[in-house]
Design a protein that fits this description.
The complex is a heterodimer of chains A (107) and B (116).
Chain A: E1 4-7, E2 10-13, E3 19-25, E4 33-38, E5 45-49, E6 53-54, E7 62-67, E8 70-75, E9 85-90, E10 97-98, E11 102-106
Parallel strand pairs in A: 2-11
Antiparallel strand pairs in A: 1-3, 3-8, 4-5, 4-9, 5-6, 7-8, 9-10, 9-11
Chain B: E1 3-7, E2 10-12, E3 18-25, E4 34-39, E5 45-51, E6 58-60, E7 68-73, E8 78-83, E9 92-98, E10 110-114
Parallel strand pairs in B: 2-10
Antiparallel strand pairs in B: 1-3, 3-8, 4-5, 4-9, 5-6, 7-8, 9-10
The chains are: A mainly beta (107), B mainly beta (116).
Chain lengths: 107, 116
């Protein structure tokens, strides 16, 4: 299975900060990567697919980049609604696998 | 409005069985590949199974292969997960989700607890 590793595990930031989350794959997944946001007690919500394509309705302060094995999710100006856990997911090879998540919390 | 509603979760003893259901509204489920994704309490997400729109292709994670069976009834706009030989490590919230490779729409989840 392809292992997805996210770091940092927890990120403390202030409203208005720019933050960058990293996701690393154990082997190349080309550009087959998605990002999700999950808030406590809620289902995950698709933010980005194919590395950098924003899902409809997702604010433009979210952006994704990378290829191969190294990927990032950036939030340009953190808003109160953005404090959540973020997961990356590869869909290059079955089984589809997720990273362990990065929790973005208020500093 | 696209909506997915899971049901069928509950408390079951190790070795027991449960059948989860996921019913769609606001769209025609038969047009979509469907998935089950689970999340153990306080843990991350694990994809466990999917089924093609036409029901002719199914995939499973190794952790559930041979114990879980995914199926669908497009006439009822529903997808199912039959879970047999349940283990403590199967305890999780089970979500159904649309998508062939990534997951666009999710249900609210149903909690499965495997414990004696």
């Amino acid at each position: 299975d392809i292992q997805m590793t996210q770091f940092p595990y927890t990120l403390s930031a202030n409203v208005g900060d720019k933050v960058t989350l990293t996701c690393r794959a154990s082997q190349s997944i080309r550009s087959w990567l998605a990002w999700y946001q999950q808030k406590p007690g809620k289902a995950p919500h698709l933010l980005i697919y194919k590395v950098s394509i924003l899902e409809s309705g997702v604010p433009s302060r979210f952006s994704g980049s990378g290829s191969g094995t190294e990927f990032t999710l950036s939030i340009s100006r953190l808003q109160p609604d953005d404090f959540a856990t973020y997961y990356c997911q590869q869909y290059n090879t079955y089984p589809w696998t997720f990273g362990q998540g990065t929790k973005v919390e208020i500093k | 409005e696209v909506r997915l509603v899971e049901s069928g979760g509950g408390l079951v003893q190790p070795g027991g069985s449960l059948r989860l259901s996921c019913t769609a509204s606001g769209f025609t489920l038969s047009n979509y590949e469907m998935n089950w994704v689970r999340q153990a309490p306080g843990k991350g997400l694990e994809w466990i199974s999917n089924i093609s729109s036409s029901d002719n292709n199914k995939n499973y994670a190794e952790s559930v292969k041979g114990r879980f069976t995914i199926s669908r009834d497009n006439a009822k706009n529903s997808v199912y997960l039959q879970m047999n030989s349940l283990r403590a490590e199967d305890s999780a919230i089970y979500y159904c989700a649309t998508g062939d490779v990534y997951f666009r729409h999710w249900g609210q989840g149903t909690l499965v607890t495997v414990s004696s």
